[in-house]
Amino acid sequence: MIKVSETAKQRVIALMTEEGFNAEKDFVRVGVKSGGCSGLSYELGFDDKTDATDKVFEDNAVRIIVDKKSFLYLVGTTLEYSGGLNGKGFVFNNPNAQRTCGCGESFSL
Questions:
Q1: Is the distance from CB of 86 to CB of 12 less than 8 angstroms?
Q2: pTM reported for the whole predicted model
């Protein structure tokens, strides 16, 4: 399961609307790919369809899809949004990550 904080929910809905997606029926696609300074990096985007192997979740009125491989790395993660002076953006609070880089965009297990 992937959770979504209240601030992330508000930002996701606003961005989906700006990009022509409908937050009530479309999805936030979350994934992991090789790369980044710690070895793995997070991906976040919007999608209007799922693949047969996707895991589908809904938390805090946000529909989330994750590919099967990425799901193994993201179990228990909370998607948050930070709008502070140190930088704006989505933050993945991943309990599986043993090490993260300074920017928070990559991690290792």
A1: no
A2: 0.81
